[in-house]
Amino acid sequence: MNLNQVTVPTNDMEASVRFYKLLGLKLIVDARPRYVRFECPDGDSTFSIHEIDELGVGEAPVIYFETATLDIEVKRLQDSGLNFDLLPTDQSWGWREARLQDPVGNKVILFWGGENRKNPPWRVQ
Prior knowledge:
Blueprint: E1 5-10, H1 13-23, E2 26-31, E3 35-39, E4 46-51, E5 62-66, H2 70-79, E6 86-90, E7 96-101, E8 107-112
Parallel strand pairs: 1-4, 5-8
Antiparallel strand pairs: 2-3, 3-4, 6-7, 7-8
């Protein structure tokens, strides 16, 4: 199996579309006001947003986008006005991560995992 897409909810479609375009995703389906779909700039995965009337309560999905140029991307996004909850930081599991939220509060992690993304030292054999 290959991951096709992840879909997240929003109650502010226009702000969400601007945010994910700023991250570098390419809009490929525009069925606003209810649905949009993006193509990721690398790989073959897509990402979509579905408009809902009211956001749920509790933990929402966490969205991970990998980039080998993490620090450069974070700087570009900061220069574009985005605020980060965590600037690029080396994590104990071998990834370098930066954390922010989209306009409706979905958690977004930009990271570089390199070889540790799928093959950490503790991988099950």
